[in-house]
Amino acid sequence: MNKRPLTIICTARMGHGTFEAKFKPLVQLDSIGRIVVVRKDKGPEISKLSYRILPSLCRNPILNLMITPFVLVREVIRHKADLILAYHYQPHFYFAWIAAKLTGKPYILGQTGTDIQILGSRLIRGWLMRHILRNVLSFNVPGTETYKYWLSKGVPFDRIRVLHSTIDTDYMIPLEMERRYDFVFVGRLTEVKRIDKLILASSELIKEYPQLRICLVGDGHLMKPLKQMRDEYGLRDNLDFVGLQSNIRDWLNSAHAFVMMSDSEGLPCAMMEAMSCGLICIAPMVNNMADLIKQGETGFGFDTSNVGQLTGLMRFVKENRDSLKQIRQNARELIIACHSFNKAKIEWKQVIDRYWERVPEIDCE
Q1: Tens digit of each residue's pLDDT (9 = 90 or more) over 241-252
Q2: Do 146 and 10 share a structural domain?
Q3: Is 175 among the domain residues?
Q4: Beta strands 181-186 and 214-217, pairing class
Q5: Longest C-alpha distance within the chain, in Å?
Q6: 150 and 294 co-located in one domain
Q7: Alpha carbon 247 to chain centroid distance?
Q8: Are 10 and 36 in contact (CB under 8 A)?
Q9: Would you state the pLDDT for residue 268?
Q10: Which of 90, 160, 255, 272 could cross-link to 181 by cystine, CB 3.0-4.6 Å?
């Protein structure tokens, strides 16, 4: 069989950073000829990847649901595409499934968060989602716990693959820079990230370390109330909210350690980037975090409901950071081995090989 380069039509909702982490390894494969991403706004420039911008009508949620699946179908036909790819279940998994049914093309789905697992347990919508997942060419999930969850929901083991965002470990490297901050956080300022826990922990630590400095990189609708909370706890000189930044590598390398406090995570790119840069990481042991945090070996994990544990670990890392070089090295080695672009390319090659092996058997019904 002549295995020509494949054309993929994609529907996805992702911001910069996560977008690159998904697509850069994929486009590096010789087996991929072109990817067309259907979305409301143009995304980052990536080789082999172009955009089909949806009509402005699609900014209306109802019209978006009505129009986008048929735009996908048109793009599949127009480009004679081989595969349909979707990231983020709502509404993109549904869009991909409908387009697959109408065109007969196989589809690949990529889980980006954990909300879909709540849906998976519901009666009617859960049944539909499980049906969609059982008929994929490949369902790419963030980590081991997610893999086990979907197995328990009846998704065939040969359809599930641990393949998530991965890191450019040749770029995300430790740099010799001034470490201005004790800790850095990178992420959206939203409820699930629980920045309030970091503020509470910091309010305890400044009693012992008045010069404690923490940098928060990112933006979100909680920026104003979080700044207000920071000021109320007397931390204006300790916590810097610097907003969105383009050069995340430099911001990571400006700190000794990385900290996050989320109630829920798939497998966070920001922490993997921090580990690749050789930072000591403190993170809640939720969802797939055990794939990254081996306690005392690659980082430190805490019970997300226990702010005291978070405070204690931050204290320990601040006091002992110079003696934790092996953890820094172990963390980077883990990312290179399991979560790098090279690892993703191996996994994607297996998905594409599966396409060539099974495409005549694919049933989108």
Answers
A1: 999 998 999 999
A2: yes
A3: no
A4: parallel
A5: 69
A6: no
A7: 18
A8: yes
A9: 92
A10: 255
